[in-house]
């Protein structure tokens, strides 16, 4: 089960509707973790599972990023939690601004790389990342986002990056899962108090 952010930077943004949909997704995910046979929570721990922990929804961490695509994507070898390597293609860079708590923009523009598995597929863009909550308020192995698009992205396109949909990989809950770790280029030197918590 994954969390995807739709690519639709031009649609009118309704904060109330967004928050309702976000809360519904969180409820649905808690049900999946509690009841589904493919839940990453070990069966013996599901009865005591009380739901995932989240930062409070914050629309300031739903940003519009400018896309820079790569016509000849470089291969990136991502280390995994089990000590293996997985091959991904770095297909795009996503540039965006972030607000501070007072509503003013933080200094500088931030960037995250977006990846896809090397084999041809129609999978969403994979955006693993670390930030200054990593290992403290969120999982030590970083968090993930997936950005779904119904079209081929081109240079200069805009895409919604919603950190409120940032989620913890399954390997945080069970060693039976092997998860890629965010490459250093996706380590953000800023606090992102949005999405799933893990302490």
UniProtKB/TrEMBL annotation:
Region entry Disordered, spans: 1-46
Organism: Natrarchaeobius halalkaliphilus
UniProt protein name: DUF1684 domain-containing protein
UniProt biased composition (Acidic residues): 1-15
Matches recorded under InterPro entries: DUF1684
TM ranges: none
Biased composition (Basic and acidic residues): 22-34
Organism domain of life: Archaea
């Amino acid at each position: 089960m994954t969390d995807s952010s739709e690519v639709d930077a031009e649609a009118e943004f309704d904060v109330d509707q967004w928050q309702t949909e976000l809360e519904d997704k969180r409820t649905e995910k808690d049900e999946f973790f509690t009841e589904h046979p493919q839940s990453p929570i070990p069966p013996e721990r599901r009865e005591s599972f009380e739901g995932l922990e989240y930062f409070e929804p914050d629309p300031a961490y739903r940003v519009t990023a400018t896309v820079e695509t790569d016509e000849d994507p470089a291969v990136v070898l991502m280390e995994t939690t089990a000590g293996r390597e997985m091959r991904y293609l770095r297909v795009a860079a996503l540039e965006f601004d972030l607000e501070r708590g007072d509503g003013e923009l933080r200094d500088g523009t931030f960037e995250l790389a977006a990846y896809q598995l090397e084999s041809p597929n129609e999978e969403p863009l994979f955006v693993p990342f670390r930030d200054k909550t990593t290992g403290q308020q969120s999982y030590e192995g970083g968090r993930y986002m997936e950005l779904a698009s119904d079209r081929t992205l081109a240079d200069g396109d805009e895409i919604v990056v919603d950190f409120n949909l940032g989620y913890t990989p399954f390997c945080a809950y069970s060693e039976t899962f092997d998860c890629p770790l965010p490459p250093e280029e996706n380590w953000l030197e800023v606090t992102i108090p949005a999405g799933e918590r893990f302490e």
